[in-house]
Amino acid sequence: MMKRWLLIILAALTLSGCGYNDFQRLDEASKSAWSEVLNQYQRRADLVPNIVATVKGEANFEQETLTRVIEARAKATSIQVTPETLNNPEAFNKFQQAQGELSSALSRLMVVAEQYPNLKANQAFRDLRVTLEGTENRIAVARNRYIQTVQEFNVLARSFPTNITAKIFDYEPKPNFSVQNEAQISAPPTVDFGAPKK
């Protein structure tokens, strides 16, 4: 009986000393952070129909730009996200790419909207624009929180001796957000001040 209790205590000390509890804590933290990312993406997706409806009211608005936003939203919301998505790099990248396409389409729509004075003056559109900007900021904060928790989890999964625990309990490193247009971002910006005025 005494040996049995000693083995249980030894096993508990070994598990806590090898990072098992840290894996549990960080796994839960990453799931929580991921839920917040999804909530903010859903908030943005819910704004799109209102933005589209408001923009459609503007005569001669670029139909191609609207179509891209509608298609990007449909694609982004059609991807089924499950807890397994966090451990599947291919599914995670597919989700990230769809959200990136929606971000690009919305950015393009906002740039094009600048060319329509009536739309810029529309109070409903201005309110939606402010709400969208706030949501994009919330997305950035939620993504950063997720990135940090996943980074901690992945460092634990790859560091010695906790990598042994990761192997034993099958804790694979989790996929993380990446910069989609890395080459474009690293290129220096082109500055064109136009032809000098006469």
What is the gist of this entry?
The protein is an all-alpha fold and 198 residues long. The protein has helices at residues 2-17, 20-56, 63-78, 89-113, 117-121, 123-158, 162-168, 182-186.
Protein model, in words:
It is a single chain. This protein is an all-alpha fold and 198 residues long. The protein has helices at residues 2-17, 20-56, 63-78, 89-113, 117-121, 123-158, 162-168, 182-186. It is 74% helix and 0% strand. It contains eight helices and no strands. Mean pLDDT is 83; it is low at 181-198.
Descriptive tags:
mainly alpha; de novo design (two linked rop proteins); 8 helices
List the helices and strands and how they pair.
Elements: H1 2-17, H2 20-56, H3 63-78, H4 89-113, H5 117-121, H6 123-158, H7 162-168, H8 182-186
